[in-house]
């Protein structure tokens, strides 16, 4: 069966002639890039052990990778069988001190020690106020921040812990579409085949069964790509998300003892970049700051944070780790593609799990849409949401469904968590009707919709 809009998702069988065997020695990485439009590759771990960003591959299982730039690392050596075309090379490390992965593993063990300590103290003193480490990963663009965050989360869950993961980088989205900022508890294994390595929308299907246990994130809608597009609002949402994260941590003892891993947007090591990180660190009461590959950023954060205490009176450790030279460049076109695929997966699922979204047709009057204003529409420099006229210009945009009422003031709506997304398929001006896709069959009721500026509109999902 062919599903409109899903055309590029289904990987076709890779050409049989391209099967090859790759032998990796301990610490080596197989780095690969599968282009967006390619059929994808399959990889089988034949012997030994290998992992993608901390999540292990099972021996003899065939994994399919589409539109991915990533690596498979082996700690003890392995043999891989790869089928299909992709750009790839092997990074060889002769000694442990040459690989940044060793310092990431050491960081994991240091965090584990802190978690064990908090667990022991909590049990002995019956003290539920103690928190596990809150780790913020930061660095310049393409320093491997998200990969390290994912790896730390994967190692923690492999040891049975349940970290809370949060992202304040609206460019990409964690378990949600780009343009959002979210947090979720990761208590189970991540999906190795997910193009986003387990942080993508696949981890939290809007409907239908899933191949890995689903995560239930709290999501806020920023509606723009970069922090600088609306710094004051980003700061507000960071504070809201930090508050919600704290509630999540307090709900489950193991989450509280495991602590938080916080992914941040790429910033420059200048005053405004450091201010962004310091705000996130303070709001999330971060007590471990990991800086990847920037001595300048490390020095600035040391200066600003190393003498501060968290609101719980703990010292803040700032540490500089090398970035991996394998981190891949992702240009604007790639990131746009990532956003498009995320939207498609949100509504239609992925090759392993097809979703069937519902098409609704409503009158103009049944929808309340507010929009993130253009710069020309700022009100006294303040970016409040403004009512949006329904027009064909809205076609192909995804709109956030807010957990608020249409009667709430715009400031409240803007800061509300989101329930999900709809995609506008068609606006019929003559009949004053709007056709949209939704992952659920129910009506929107009196939920307001917010029309942001990111992710940008995509092809008509209903063909
Ligand atoms: N050692 C590596 N070998 C190959 N690919 C890698 C390696 N490390 C990271 N990557 C890939 O490089 C890309 C960028 O990495 P990542 O998202 O972790 O960087 P980032 O610093 O978070 O990026 P941004 O600045 O855009 O937020 C990702 O596709 C990731 O899977």
Automatic annotation (TrEMBL):
The keyword Nucleotide-binding applies. Keywords: ATP-binding, mRNA processing, Nucleotide-binding, Nucleus. InterPro entries: Clp1, Clp1/Grc3, Clp1_C, Clp1_C_sf, Clp1_N, Clp1_N_sf, CLP1_P, P-loop_NTPase. ATP binds at residues 29, 69, 142-147. Transmembrane segments: none annotated. One of its GO terms (molecular function) is polynucleotide 5'-hydroxyl-kinase activity. Residues 139-348 form the Clp1 P-loop domain. GO terms for biological process: mRNA 3'-end processing; tRNA splicing, via endonucleolytic cleavage and ligation. It comes from the Eukaryota. Residues 24-117 form the Clp1 N-terminal domain. It is found in: Nucleus. One of its GO terms (cellular component) is mRNA cleavage factor complex. Residues 355-456 form the Clp1 C-terminal domain. Required for endonucleolytic cleavage during polyadenylation-dependent pre-mRNA 3'-end formation. Component of a pre-mRNA cleavage factor complex. Interacts directly with PCF11. Belongs to the Clp1 family. Clp1 subfamily. This is Polynucleotide 5'-hydroxyl-kinase GRC3. It comes from Podospora appendiculata.
């Amino acid at each position: 069966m062919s599903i409109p809009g899903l055309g590029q998702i289904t990987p076709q069988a890779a050409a049989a002639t391209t099967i090859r065997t790759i032998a990796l020695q301990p610490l080596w990485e197989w780095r690969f890039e599968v282009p967006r439009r390619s059929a994808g590759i399959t990889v089988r771990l034949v012997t030994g052990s290998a992992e993608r960003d901390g999540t292990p591959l099972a021996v003899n299982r065939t994994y399919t990778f589409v539109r991915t730039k990533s690596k498979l690392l082996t700690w003890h050596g392995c043999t891989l069988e790869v089928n299909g075309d992709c750009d790839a090379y092997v990074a060889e490390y002769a000694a442990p001190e040459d690989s940044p992965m060793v310092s990431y593993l050491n960081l994991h063990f240091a965090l584990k020690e802190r978690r064990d300590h908090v667990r022991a103290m909590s049990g002995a003193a019956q003290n539920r106020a103690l928190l596990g480490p809150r780790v913020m990963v930061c660095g310049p663009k393409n320093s491997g921040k998200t990969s390290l965050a994912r790896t730390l989360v994967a190692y923690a869950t492999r040891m049975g812990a349940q970290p809370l993961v949060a992202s304040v980088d609206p460019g990409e989205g964690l378990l949600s579409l780009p343009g959002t900022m979210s947090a979720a508890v990761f208590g189970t294994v991540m999906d190795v085949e997910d193009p986003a390595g387990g942080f993508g929308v696949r981890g939290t299907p809007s409907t239908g069964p899933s191949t890995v246990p689903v995560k239930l994130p709290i999501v806020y809608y920023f509606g723009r790509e970069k922090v600088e597009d609306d710094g004051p609002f980003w700061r507000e949402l960071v504070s809201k998300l930090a508050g919600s994260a704290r509630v999540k941590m307090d709900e489950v003892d193991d989450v509280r003892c495991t602590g938080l891993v916080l992914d941040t947007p790429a910033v420059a090591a200048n005053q405004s970049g450091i201010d962004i990180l310091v705000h996130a660190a303070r709001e999330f009461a971060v007590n471990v700051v990991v800086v990847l590959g920037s001595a300048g950023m490390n020095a600035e954060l040391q200066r600003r944070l190393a003498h501060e205490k968290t609101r719980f009176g703990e010292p803040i450790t700032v540490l500089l780790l090398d970035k991996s030279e394998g981190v891949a460049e992702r240009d604007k076109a790639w990131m746009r593609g990532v956003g498009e695929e995320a939207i498609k997966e949100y509504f239609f699922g992925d090759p392993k799990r097809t979703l069937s979204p519902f098409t609704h047709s409503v009158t103009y009057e049944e929808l309340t849409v507010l929009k993130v204003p253009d710069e020309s529409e700022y009100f006294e420099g303040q970016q409040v949401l403004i009512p949006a006229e329904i027009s064909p210009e809205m076609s192909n945009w995804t709109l956030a469904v807010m957990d608020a009422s249409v009667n709430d003031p715009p400031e409240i709506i803007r800061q509300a968590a989101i329930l999900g997304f709809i995609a506008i398929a068609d606006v019929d001006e003559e009949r004053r009707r709007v056709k949209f896709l939704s992952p659920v069959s129910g009506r929107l009721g009196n939920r307001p919709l917010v029309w942001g500026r990111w992710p940008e509109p995509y092809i008509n999902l209903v063909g």
